[in-house]
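Annex B. Sample input.
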Amino acid sequence: MWGGRKLSSCGNRFLGVLRSRCWCTQAEGARLSSSAENQFSWTPQTNPWVFSEYSIMWFKSYRITFACLSRMKIYRYPWTRLYSTSQTTVDSSEIKTFLALAHRWWDEQGVYAPLHSMNDLRVPFIRDNLLKTVAHHQPGKPLSGMKILDVGCGGGLLTEPLGRLGASVIGIDPVDENIKTAQHHKSFDPVLEKRIEYRACSLEEIVEETAETFDAVVASEVIEHVIDLETFIQCCYQVLKPGGSLFITTINKTQLSYALGIVFSEQIAGIVPKGTHTWEKFVSPEKLESILESNGLSVHTVAGMLYSPFSGYWRWSENTSLNYAAHAVKSTGQEPPVPAGFVFRGEAEELHDKDSINPGVQEELKK
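Annex B, continued. Sample output.
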């Protein structure tokens, strides 16, 4: 197939060496390469750590790359169990930051004021997309019968509105004090007592017991705080039912987001506490879409979000250079996969026309 008797002879000789040993170290691979250097213009190399992780040996040359095998290294089957109980997506260095602010979640004029205001966009965004999947819904409780997982729920700012819309919601957060604050606030509303459950844990801790349990997973202002985004997305895939929805809001990784999201918001205006965000963890829509698509989640919507520190309100925007929201759906195995990077922009444009939530619904959410 490669052509040339010398090349074929070298390949057979090299495979013979592999059969005589379980695997080659890099030093041995280099020695083999050196001995063949005068005969051939390409140099086979081995990566034993790829062998041990994927049960294949990945051969790579300066001129030839086995594309099919390297592709297996990148695009893994999303249903494969890749997580482990020892693996975590929680950044322990950020726990202290949120622990110090655990008692301030429900101060609507405090450091979490932008998140209170964001509910005017993210609650209808979640509600409207979920209602597209059902033929009928109950008036006053449109999300009745749906199970939602709110990852990184904090004090329950988003969990409670979703519960008031009729959904059964589990809110999880690795900071125990956040969960205590959320449980205390929930206790004031008997209706929420029946619909909302809180747990102090990380996402990967509940994957096995909640596999394919939820109609929707929400990770709002969360992924910019995790240390392993791909593992996090894989866990979201695991707990979703086929056809279930994943909702994400986060911050783009741009120079503008650094200037406004960190320098202005944290260091100058004090809109959020210093050290809340790390620019290196911000994720661009393109990178997020790529990770979602390669893990079995079809991206349906990406829409920009803009916050005004002067008015204290959010609005939808076609510009995603700062904040943005994404909606992805877990494949049911019946529809063809959506190519990575493809977005149904029609839904984003529709959101752009809705600068604010309907006042009547807003009042219902605050009851």
